Protein: CRISPR-associated endoribonuclease
Amino acid sequence: MRCKITIRKTSSNPIHYDYQYGIASMLYKRLANANISLANELHSHQGFKFYTFSNLVIEDRIKAKQGLNFTRAHFFISSPDSEFIRSFTEGLLMEPEFYLGKGKKANFIIESAEVLPQKDFSDTCKFTTLSPLYVKTMRKKDGKLAEFDLYPKDAKFYENLHTNLTSRYEQYHGKKVEQDFFEILDVKNFKPKRVSIGNSFRRCSLLTMKLEASPELVKFAYDAGLGEKNAMGFGCLGVVE
Structure:
């Protein structure tokens, strides 16, 4: 299930290009307002978190020397859990004002939260990334295992996407995928992106692709996101009609 959130900026201060961590924090606080037990469960849960959100889609960009400036924008929150989306929507509307940034903070107000119609999926769908895909692996460096961020040029990128998606599906549904096939084809418009999360940087990918998988996996990728760190705003997908 997916919800479209429309926001309006009520101050002249631009926001930093790396705003995902700020939005993730705001969303968690709003969820706590509407459903504290669900928020506490998410906070204490050490496994996967089954939701994602997109980058801001800026509707009227204003020229700024530093950062992003605009008046109106929207973004999407997505999850396979309809109760989760309902609680998020209620929490956002209960307290519609929020801010992003440090120092000279930019103030916002949520104008609307619209739950979108459910989509039906077959075993093939063309997707575009609405927020960057993040995929990593462990490799030896100087005799020790270290994390390496992956790009689509690396075959391990696709293997880990598949493994991560099926693992999250099985944990969420409590059962194995009935028909587990997965292939990403026709990758185009690749753009590397470096995103700051907390005190570290992640190398990620923006792209369009054709995903061939069982319909249940295709739908789960759309609802819960693809790749890692979905709850921090990575791996949100949009359907290319």
